[in-house]
Each structure stands twice: as structure tokens, then as C-alpha cells.
Amino acid sequence: MTKIAGAILISAFALSASADDGEKLVKASDCSSCHAVDHEVVGPSFSAMAKRYAAQDTAVIIEKLAAKIRDGGGGMTPHPDLTDAQRKDMATWILSLTASAPAQAGAKQYEYKLNDGTTATLDFPLYLEDKAPKVTKSIFHGYQLFNSYCYRCHGTDAAGSQLAPDLRHSLTAGMKQAGFLSVAMTGKKEQGMPAWAGFLTEDDVVDIYRYVKGRSLDLVPSGRPPSGQD
After folding, report:
1. CA atoms within 13 A of residue 213's CA, in its CB half-sphere
2. Is domain 110-216 in CATH 1.10.760.10, yes or no?
3. For residue 90, which of 49, 52, 56, 62 has the smallest C-alpha distance?
């Protein structure tokens, strides 16, 4: 093996180790509250960032991303407590994600008959299979989270209050999951709405959205919904 080839191999191993450390740091931080590997949450996906910078000088981009992680800005939380080496490891991992995970085709649809005789089609189940009206684990978790944190402003059981919008009406008016996630994670400071990024995960907020969606369709009752735990 030539010295050049050996140096390249050592460099590749170093980058791989740095990326592994960076992945652990990202997963241990609040980054996943606003970013996912293969899809947009509040901010762009990590793989989209990697694709955006793929043709540029890696060392320069690592420095740029590390500085962004440190300073934040544009809605992104700064992370000054991380060391420079840690931020560079995180940036190295992000740049290693050169391809997005393949999208799942043919997502299952679930149809539910509403009280007015119409049918609602959802891309997630409200009830356990063949056990309606017992709700899924996701819906029940959303109920628990909502009535632990969100109820103070949006009313117990998503029934609305005078302090903040009735989220059931927001959803029936056309708010989608992506919009719900964005508002919940980044908040609306001028309206007194806190940002939940770093406290609730993306999965947590999706569960809350699904619960409120069920409430907005009158398919999930007020109070503690029946579940598989009963």
C-alpha cells in the first residue's frame, strides 16, 4: 500500500468514526425535535442538507454547519455548550447522509363513518384492529400528553377555551399534520404560544395531532378514551 493510499484510508476511518460520534450526539440532543433524517419536520431533513452541500468542499461545510449548530438563528436553537469537536462530529454525520431513505409506497388508508353520515379517510388508525372504540397506543398517548400540557390553554380534552384557539376547529378548517408540527415545535411567542422543541419529540406531537384529529371528527370521546390497557 502506498503512503497516499494509506493516508486516504486513515482519513476515511477518521471520518467514519467522527460520523458515528456525531450521530450519537444528534440523537442525544434536541435536534430531532425539529429535524428528521429523511423528511421535513420544522426544519429541513438531515439528508436534504447533505444533498444540498454534496458538491461543496467538505471541510468548509463542516465548519459552516458546526458554526450554525453553535450559534443557531432563523428559528434554530443555539448549542454553545457543545464543544467545537462535538459540533464538527455532528456536522460530519449530517454530511454523510447523502441519500434519503426510500419513501414508503401505498400507505394504508383508514375510513371512518361520521355522525353526519359522511366518511373521513385518515392515513393512521384511530382504533385497535377489530376492537373499536378502543383507541390505538398513539391516540391514547396523544390524549395523555394533551391533558398534561396543552389543556392549560387549549382546554381539557381539546374542548377549547378562551385562552387559545380550539384546535379541533383549526383541524377542521384545514390545518394539516405538517402545520400542526411546525406551530407546536417553534411556537408563536407573540401570541404566548411556547415552543415545545427540545421537550416534546416529533413522535409526541404527531400523537397529539392524531388525538386532536380524532376529537375534531367526534370519533374520540371527551375524557379518558377506552384503550388496549382496559
Report:
1. 24
2. yes
3. 62
CATH number of 3-96: 1.10.760.10
Helix boundaries (H) for the chain: 3-28, 46-52, 58-71, 84-96, 137-145, 151-154, 167-172, 177-186, 202-216
- Closest to 220 measured CA to CA, from 207, 203, 202, 205: 207
> What is the rounded end-to-end Cα distance, in angstroms, of the chain?
66
The domain spans of the chain are: 3-96, 110-216
Between 9 and 182, name the one with better pLDDT: 182
Task: Dump pLDDT digits (tens) for 194-219.
Answer: 989 888 988 999 999 999 999 999 99
Same CATH fold assignment for domains 3-96 and 110-216: yes
pLDDT of residue 36: 79
For cell 442525544, name the residue.
28
The string of pLDDT tens digits covering residues 74-111 is: 777 888 888 988 888 888 888 888 744 454 555 789 99
Scan for cell 400507505, then name that residue: 107
Q: Are 18 and 65 a contacting pair, CB within 8 Å?
A: no
- Classify residue 128 as exposed, middle or buried by CB count within 10 Å of its CB (0-12, 13-18, 19+): middle
The one-letter code for the residue type at 187 is: G
pTM score, whole prediction: 0.68
